[in-house]
Amino acid sequence: MSWFRSESNANGAGASSPVIAPTADNRQGSCPDPPNGNAIVVDHIVKKYGDFTAVDDVSFSVQQGEIFGLLGPNGAGKSTLIRMMTTLLPITAGRALINGFDVSKLADNARRCMGVIPQALTSDIDLTVEENLTIYAKLYGVPAEQRNRNIDELLETVDLTKWRNAQTKTLSGGMRRRLEIARGLVHSPKIFFLDEPTTGLDPVSRVAVWEMLTKIKNSRDLTILITTHYMDEADRLCDRIAIVDHGKLVALDSPAALKASVPGTNVIEAQFTNAPADWQQQLQTLDDVTSVQPEAAHMYRILTGNGSKTTTELVELAVRSNVQVKSLSVQNTTLDDVFVHFTGRQLRDEQVKAYSFVMPDRPGMRP
Ligand code: ADP
Q1: 118 CB within 6 A, ligand 1
Q2: How many other C-beta atoms are found inside a 10 Å radius of the C-beta of residue 94?
Q3: What single-letter DSSP state applies at residue 85?
């Protein structure tokens, strides 16, 4: 078997287990409603690895029923944060409360309230879909009758009913991710943690996972905390987003409020040929322009408070200067612009550096 339990907070070892079940003698009991509706409270939390500070004095709270996103580039500290909240990693300073339970002191109570989907796929490929779910349900002490009901319902929800007896190794990456989502819900948790749930999935599977999460959240009255480095994912799924960079919280609000906080409401992306050396400075002088970021291959990203007026002026300037406009698009500001605004760097550049998760091969099956 490829799974085991974490005892990280009990012994301080910080084991990297994917299974976060309560201890055998402490499985029973339910998860109460959170005090003041605060499902998750992170209070001045710090994580140090030796001298290196991976998470630096971060505080936020998540309301019951919210989808809350931790957005940031690779290495920002998102996984470290989630691993501390889910009892997998000892906390250096500060505290995390799950439904009011301090994860360092009442880890079993906190574990009963949470379902956790780690970044790596951890279902056992030699077991069937149903066996993977049954093992987890047993680990959490779900009574047999309820177990069977939950599994039937969850297989339906994640659209895997007809694959129930299939060996997990024959599933595609997207199907396996859906199995892991079902597995994280077998004990009916109130808070669901997902660490980069769509990394490595193709665009169609990513959208399927988003739709599934929204459906599950609404039907089960879940609170969801998700980490991602995909801006579109955070924008589409989350009620509120915390942007994390170098272990610090740099912004926290709804996607709409974050975008509104950036000066300029439109982004013009334009590519030119024959542009002179001072072209960036010339673009900067156009009316309503708040910033001009040069990108690769004579492409510029121009933030403006008035997309149509700036576009007209830009084309006039290009004609006067004998510069050709090779391509031009006008969009609303994105979370990428929010990231640049708060950090001075582009999240898209950071994403290129990010590692990508490679889905394991499926013996005997085409992907
Ligand atoms: P993210 O999930 O945002 O990609 P992580 O939380 O995985 O970021 O990592 C945050 C930082 O902590 C990175 O610089 C990473 O190299 C470092 N880090 C993570 N785990 C360890 C560890 N066990 N020992 C030392 N440094 C670590």
Answers
A1: no
A2: 17
A3: H
Residue whose CA is closest, atom 27 of ligand 1?
A: 49
Domain edge (last residue) among 258, 282, 313? 258
For residue 289, give its domain range. 264-332
| DSSP code string of 235-268 | HHH-SEEEEEETTEEEEEE-HHHHHHTSS-SEEE
Question: Which pLDDT score, from 0 to 100, does residue 185 have?
Answer: 92
- The answer, yes or no, to whether any atom of ligand 1 lies below 6 A from the CB of 76, is yes
Query: Which residue lies with its CA nearest to atom 12 of ligand 1?
Result: 54
Q: Please give the model's pTM, rounded to 2 decimal places.
A: 0.79
One domain, residues 168 and 307: no
Is residue 150 situated within a structural domain?
yes
Contact 190, 98 (CB under 8 A): no
Q: Specify the DSSP element, H or E, that contains 63.
A: strand 52-63
Q: Is residue 216 part of a domain?
A: yes
Q: Do β-strands 101-102 and 93-98 pair in parallel, antiparallel, or remain unpaired?
A: antiparallel
What does pLDDT average to over the chain?
A: 85
Separation CA 119–CA 18 (nearest Å): 9
In whole angstroms, give the CA distance from residue 78 to residue 185. Answer: 22
Query: How many structural domains are present in the chain?
Result: 2
- Among 258, 281, 305, give the residue marking a domain's end: 258
Q: Say whether 60 sits in a helix, a strand or coil.
A: strand
Same domain, 183 and 271: no
- Residues 125, 235, single domain; the answer is yes
List, in sequence order, every residue forming a beta bridge with 62; answer none if it has no partner.
Answer: 40
Ligand 1 probe mutation, 46, 47, 51, 79, most atoms within 8 A of CB: 79
pLDDT in tens, 261-303: 887 778 899 999 989 999 999 999 999 998 898 887 789 999 9
Q: What is the CATH number of the domain that holds 181?
A: 3.40.50.300
Q: What is the CATH number of the domain that holds 284?
A: 3.30.70.100
